[in-house]
Design brief:
With 116 residues, the chain is α/β, with parallel strands linked by helices. Helix content is 37%, strand content 26%.
Amino acid sequence: MIPTGWIRRARLRQGTPIRMKMIIHDWADDQAVRILRSCRQAMREDSKLLLIEQLLPKRKLSGVQMFIDLTMMAMFGSKEHTATEFQALFAQAELELTRTIDLVNGYAIIEAKPRV
């Protein structure tokens, strides 16, 4: 069960972002899309979605990134994502990737807005 009802019922004020930290990587892609669609339903046209997640590089993973990715696959049937993979998940949820902001240790803020 994916607890997304609270997101759909949310009434966002103008400019209020939805913020989630290390949520999407816990779920298989089809379930992650359901969560993102619930976010989209709660968003206004001027809203933003801000995810803090591990952002995998397109190529060579660090040892830590590989360990986290394999752990997520083994424990939850989920995985870490690249920017391109987030873009694909967002597209299925009628969201658009607007930018990524690198943080430390492979984490990033991944920003999306409603696709109109």
